[in-house]
Design goal:
357 residues, 2 domains, two-stranded antiparallel sheet, 3-stranded antiparallel beta sheet, alpha+beta, flat
Amino acid sequence: MGCAINAIQVVAAAAALIHKRLPDLHPRRRSRTFRTILGCQVANDRPGVGLRPGGERPDLEDAVVRLYDALFESVAAHARLGLDYPDAGPYLKDGINDYVVNGQQSKVNPDKTGTKVSAHYQVNVQAGETAVIRLRLTNSPLKGQGKIFGKTFDEILATRLREADEFYQSVTPPSVCADAAQVMRQAIAGMLWSKQYYYWDGDQWLEEHRAHPLHHGSLDFRNREWFHMINDDIISMPDKWEYPWYAAWDLAFHTLPIAIVDPDFAKEQLKLMLRGVYLHPSGQLPAYEWNFSDVNPPVHAWATLFLHRTEQALRGEIDVDILRSAFNKLMLNFTWWVNRKDRFGKNVFEGGLPRSR
């Protein structure tokens, strides 16, 4: 499996705006990072990106010095964690952070190849001034900076902004005032932005942590009960920067605002947690990566019903198939709650977090 920058089959244009209000003269730094993979990476044939000969885009090498500094590292984990990762070399995860934040230039690969790359810009912005950084991804050969960032670039941004305005206007109730409409737009945009590819192979993960319950001498470690699970999907994350993993009950709540703009994706997210490669044979839903066996509040059924009513109101349609398939799995989940979390038979479930969210 290979994935690289030139495998991105879209042309993207973006402009980052930096406005400086403080009187200090420290340079502002902006880095934009692209990854070829996420999650565990222990395979011998790692995908990669590169800008120099031997990488996938040697034709971009001249642009590196002229436009930005490209920083490369590997997504592989640090061997010092004591896990059974193969030797991935000295340029490991957090290398870009160590370079930018701590000034450790030896932490990134000088050959400009790896599984993660960040375009690093440094701009001196005086107090009260504004600086604009233009970025464009393309799978076409470079033909001069003027054509890349000229009139066409601005036209693309203007067109996409106009399309976004029209889209959000179409999903915003007419009774909402302009200020509330802006808040709604920002909230929904944040939800759409937080979609991310997530990969977790329970069998492999437990082997790496020497905790596979089917192997002799395994350690008592979290997630031992989830060796059946394989996550390999685009999932709505709580925050793909600070919390780049899913949480089942957060995800249930995510589907409500997402359904306003993309009800099909919202339904897929609800069905995801009920699939056989997610749902435990006992009926428990996986909580989150640091301990899938944690108990989350039983909100999946409520979210399914809410989504059904939302679609009925917005589209005038009823998706009987999702109700039927979800009902069977949710009954299994309900049975798990009754058997495991109702010690006194009073239909009062126990567990969950010690505080409300």
